[in-house]
């Protein structure tokens, strides 16, 4: 029975070859930050109010002026189409069916146009800036022509984080079968069969680009480190501001100074994110970074939080601290791998119903009732840097499945 995101995670793990599952779970270096993202939620406890009428719970909100039926947005995740054929299209349809936004990664398997054609939801396009600026320009033109509503510039990948497990696994795009993984792939023939109906197993937006040939498998870090521009600065944000007609969102803000600068350039929303612990290790937990960014922004832009959200209570905490909405990455990928579109819908439903229950038990029936008085800060959780790199010892598995906190 699937009653939690952890259950979905385990189903995804059973369905995917290990190298693909490890790519989703991947984190950089010692995994301090990926662990902190989860454990730091445990430092914030609730102050509940009794005898409040909670007969009408309202978890709807607005984001960039659009109504959202739930404050949970699907984060950009490269290669989601390796988890299920047409994975990005399925996830976008799931977001539409639940009244929320799907963000398409530059590095998706499905193309900008395919995903736009599949979905009837406001879509956001996430941009990585390429050294070859004609590629960047063409991505922007395509996203604009396909009707993507907002542009989400990710700023925390000047170079790829050190994902040691992907390196050990020899993870490539398309995934390669070799001596070390052949038995594991044979054990997951269902995935092989399902994926045989996929239109491709490489970065869809760049098919035909000389850097990607049909036959060559490329390492993700090697490929991106060759193509992404390491010289991106605030000047590029100014350039994007004047070339992108819609709302501009910056993803990967961890410093209040940067938040203030982004706001001064007219950026409409900021995503407080450490990239799910996949980039700079030893950044603090995303939830711990949130209050100072919210305070720096002073309401001049909307603030979104991502990183480590696995429970509706995590979302309530982020919103109480001033986030307008939350993004989830791995939780919806687990759903996608477990059961395609229905799995992504289940991930959204589980989190939303947990959020509803939290609001009722807290005595704050509407999202707008949440503020910092709903929280108290407990003693810091003890965060142990990970030494084991095996995917079975993931941060989520460090929490009991039942969700009782162990700090
Ligand atoms: C498999 C995977 C691929 C990702 N690819 C991208 C990407 O292409 N662009 C991006 O901005 N963030 C990417 N991210 C980061 C997510 O957008 C998000 O910040 C992170 O997953 C949030 O943490 P969570 O997984 O704990 O929810 C990726 C994350 C994962 C797990
Ligand atoms: C394909 C990658 C560039 C996607 C990414 O940003 C990530 O794995 O964190």
UniProtKB/TrEMBL annotation:
Residues 1-380 form the FMN hydroxy acid dehydrogenase domain. Pfam families: FMN_dh. One of its GO terms (cellular component) is plasma membrane. One of its GO terms (biological process) is aerobic respiration. Belongs to the FMN-dependent alpha-hydroxy acid dehydrogenase family. PANTHER family: 2-HYDROXYACID OXIDASE 1, S -2-HYDROXY-ACID OXIDASE-RELATED. This is (S)-2-hydroxy-acid oxidase.
């Amino acid at each position: 029975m699937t009653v939690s995101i952890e259950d979905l995670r385990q189903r995804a793990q059973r369905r995917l070859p290990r190298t693909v599952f490890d790519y989703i779970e991947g984190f950089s270096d010692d995994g301090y930050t990926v662990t902190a993202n989860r454990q730091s939620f445990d430092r914030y406890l609730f102050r509940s109010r009794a005898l409040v009428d909670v007969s009408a719970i309202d978890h709807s909100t607005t984001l960039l002026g659009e109504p959202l039926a739930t404050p949970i947005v699907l984060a950009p995740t490269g290669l989601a189409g390796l988890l299920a054929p047409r994975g990005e299209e399925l996830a976008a349809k799931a977001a539409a069916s639940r009244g929320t936004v799907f963000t398409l990664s530059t590095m998706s398997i499905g193309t900008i146009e395919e995903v736009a054609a599949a979905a009837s939801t406001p879509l956001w396009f996430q941009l990585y800036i390429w050294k070859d600026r004609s590629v960047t320009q063409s991505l922007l033109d395509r996203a604009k022509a396909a009707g993507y509503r907002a542009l989400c510039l990710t700023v925390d990948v000047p170079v790829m984080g050190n994902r040691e497990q992907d390196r050990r696994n020899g993870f490539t795009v398309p995934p390669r079968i070799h001596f070390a993984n052949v038995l594991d792939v044979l054990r997951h023939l269902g995935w092989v069969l399902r994926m045989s109906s996929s239109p491709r197993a490489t970065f869809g937006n760049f098919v035909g680009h000389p850097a990607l040939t049909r036959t060559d498998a490329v390492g993700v870090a090697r490929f991106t480190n060759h193509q992404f521009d390491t010289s991106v600065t605030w000047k590029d944000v100014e350039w994007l501001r004047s070339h992108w007609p819609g709302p501009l969102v910056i993803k990967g803000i961890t410093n209040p100074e940067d938040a203030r600068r982004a706001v001064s350039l007219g950026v409409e929303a900021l995503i407080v994110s450490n990239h799910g612990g996949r980039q700079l290790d030893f950044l603090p937990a995303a939830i711990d970074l949130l209050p100072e960014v919210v305070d720096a922004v002073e309401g001049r832009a909307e603030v979104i939080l991502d990183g480590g959200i696995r429970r509706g209570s995590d979302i309530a905490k982020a919103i109480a601290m001033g986030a307008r909405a939350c993004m989830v990455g791995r939780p919806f990928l687990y759903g996608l791998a477990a059961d395609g579109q229905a799995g992504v819908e289940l991930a959204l439903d589980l989190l939303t119903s947990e959020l509803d229950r939290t609001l009722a038990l807290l005595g704050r029936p509407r999202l707008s009732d949440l503020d910092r008085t709903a929280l108290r800060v407990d003693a810091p959780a003890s965060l142990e840097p990970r030494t084991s790199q095996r995917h079975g010892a993931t941060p989520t598995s460090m929490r009991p499945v039942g969700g009782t906190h162990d700090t």
